[in-house]
Amino acid sequence: MLDFLGNLERTHMCGTLRAGHAGQQVVLMGWVNRRRDHGNLIFLDLRDRSGIAQIVLDKELTPEGHAKGEQVRPEYVVAAVGKVRLRDKDAINPKMETGEIEIKATELRVLNDTRLAPFSPSEEAIQNEEIRLKYRYIDLRRPEMQHNFRLRHEITLAIRESLSKQGFLEIETPILTKSTPEGARDFLVPSRVHPGEFYALPQSPQIFKQILMISGFDRYFQIARCFRDEDLRADRQLEFTQVDLEMSFPRREHVFGVVEQFMKAAFAAAGVDLPVPFPSISYDESMRQYGTDKPDLRLPGLTDVRSAFTNEALATLQIDSALPVVALRIPGVGELSRKEREENHPLFDQKKGAKFIDDFKRLAKSFPDAAAKVRELAGAAESDFVIVVAGDPAHHIKASDTKFSGRLSEREINVYAAAGNFRAELAKKYADRHGAFRITDEVVEKARARSANDDLIDGGKAFHPMWLTDFPMFEYELSSGKWVPAHHPFTAPYEADMANLVSDPASVRADCYDLAMNGLELGSGSIRIHSKDVQQVIFRALGISDEEARKRFGFFLDALEYGTPPHGGIALGLDRIVMLLAGAANLREVITFPKTAKAIDLMADAPTTIPEQQLKELHIRVAR
To answer: Where on this chain does ATP bind (predicted)?
Structure first.
């Protein structure tokens, strides 16, 4: 028989009690984390979100409470009334924040029981993630998950306070809106009132926040819910949260300053001192130095070693002399065996028109001067393993195959990208080998678990932000045969490149910027187009006719004609920020009710079929 709560009121959270509370009468409520029966004494570890406190049920003092204590099991919900007392010295538990005290109970109420759960919240490692997601309400009781969401709250609060102090107003934008092309597929919502017509869930508040600038709000921000129907991975979910902001009359540096201030506040909320200002690098230089547009500065970069080779050596090695020749080094792993090298080969993306040399002994035998020069240029110690990546002259690809077009040629980008991808994959593999490489906190945590010496995993909690600028304005899409925006169609081009919009779109730079940290893209933003005429030129350059632009964006084009101020902004992924600071393996650890990699909510069993009558009301018929 369960007890009623009645007029009983909680006085303290379990984890807040300390030695200074000794002698106080308290009422605690929570879940039984553990039960130990010592005959006349029963000990209950009572847990709530703040922590655990030990309850003592003495049969002589409270026979009824003791009898109830004999019946309770882990995850029962109980209320305990009693007096705080200091533990005996030999009973103090230094591993518990409440380890100096215990509560001598005078009353115990059993508020609810529980079914046998598939796992216990006190289990340290639960391998089956599907079970965790199906029983998410139990999983969220785990201390690690409670920590993650307390941290998320503190980070979000710090961001809100920082932006408010900087003069930003928090304003909401619509969830039901118009479908506009923003890169990913929209989630569509059928209209019952307007048969055959649909709303779309926002991929971002992009157009609306620009309209807020036209409306004179000057500085806007929102902790915005966004939705994108795209393939999932560790750092993607169908629905996610952005720190979205926009400001009037800014230069790029103004946006940087705002972001750096709220990022510093967010990291401080997690106990991390994040130095500002953040360094910046151009897209081209990032590709040259790191082989990616989201560099992880914890890893050794790429080194240009073209000067180490004569043209004759390159010809013998079948390396394209017109393309980059770069070296990447793996610190501290020593010389890899042939078997180890062959195991690494599948990690190299050979589709990018690049090749690699990883048999350094053979290279040194055939070209000793070149091999020595490569190691010198790369700054390689004797214990470092070096790999050379270069262009493959036998690989010919069309200009349209490249992701970005601009000052770096397509084939140059492909060589750098192949080296950058290889660098990242090797980082994951060798993170735990003599502190060699590291790329994400998931890797760091796995490596730390395998190593008794944390010093081997140097800098696992080091955070290295980097601004990236000077992106190409357009990229060429092979499937459609059209130029498409590298970011989105509302990004302003550099003023100096305006004349080339139609004649040479590949050379046009965008006044946009990304923020990367530890190999993740945290956010992307730009200075926006604030002229209707320029916006229409961009649409035409993208192959969007005036008629189509009017159909899709007519309301926005109209708004641009009514005194639009210069404006710009950015959106940062809140989930990704929390994931980094929590040291989480993926976004599912910092989102309360996430979807699986197959886009399924295992707990709610969604998506699901809809009754025929409900579909009929929405004027929808499902084709079987």
So the answer is: 228-230, 237, 521, 573-576
Calpha distance 362→270 (Å, rounded) = 49
Phi-psi region of 543 (alpha: psi -120 to 50; beta: other; left: phi over 0): left
Parallel, antiparallel or unpaired: strands 512-517 and 520-527: antiparallel
What lies within 8 Å, CB to CB, of 331 at 6+ separation is 300, 381, 383, 384, 434, 435, 436, 437
The tokens describing 471, both together, are: 């992106």
Local structure of residue 491 (DSSP, 8 states): B
573 is in an annotated binding site: yes
d(CA 74, CA 33): 5
Question: What is the distance of C-alpha 293 from the center of its chain?
Answer: 16
CA distances from 566 to 372, 537, 621 (A): 54, 17, 46
Domains identified in the chain and CATH numbers: 14-112 (2.40.50.140), 143-277+573-617 (3.30.930.10)
468 is in an annotated binding site: no
Contact assessment for residue 66 and residue 120, using Cβ atoms and an 8 Å cutoff: no
- Is 228 labelled as part of a ligand binding site? yes
The phi, psi pair for 503, rounded to 5°, reads -75, -35
Q: Please tell me the distance from the alpha carbon of residue 156 to that of residue 283, in angstroms, as a whole number.
A: 30
Annotated ligand binding at 298? The verdict is no
Q: Please tell me whether residue 120 adopts helix, strand or coil conformation.
A: coil
Question: Model confidence over 446-465: pLDDT tens digits?
Answer: 433 433 333 322 344 589 99
Residue 521 assigned to a binding site:
yes
411 is in an annotated binding site: no
CB atoms within 10 A of CB 8: 15
H/E stretch holding 149 reads: helix 143-165
Report the distance separating Cα 97 and Cα 87, nearest Å.
13
- What would the pLDDT profile of 124-163 be if each residue is shown by its tens digit? 878 899 999 999 999 999 999 999 999 999 999 999 999 9
Contacts of 26 (CB under 8 A, 6+ apart): 11, 12, 17, 81, 82, 83, 84, 103
Per-residue buried b or exposed e for 406-434, using 16+ beta carbons within 10 Å of the residue's own CB: bebbbbbbbbbbbbbbbbbbbbbbbbbbe
Q: CA–CA separation, 328 vs 17, rounded Å?
A: 53
Mean pLDDT by 10 residues, the chain (624 residues): 93 98 98 97 98 97 97 97 97 96 98 95 87 97 96 98 99 95 84 96 96 98 96 87 99 98 98 96 96 92 96 95 94 87 88 87 94 96 92 67 59 92 88 50 39 33 91 80 80 90 85 96 96 91 88 94 98 97 94 95 96 94 85
The answer to whether the annotation marks 488 as part of a ligand binding site is: no
**The tokens 């019952």 sit on which residue?**
192
Alpha-carbon distance of 329 to 321, in angstroms, equals 21
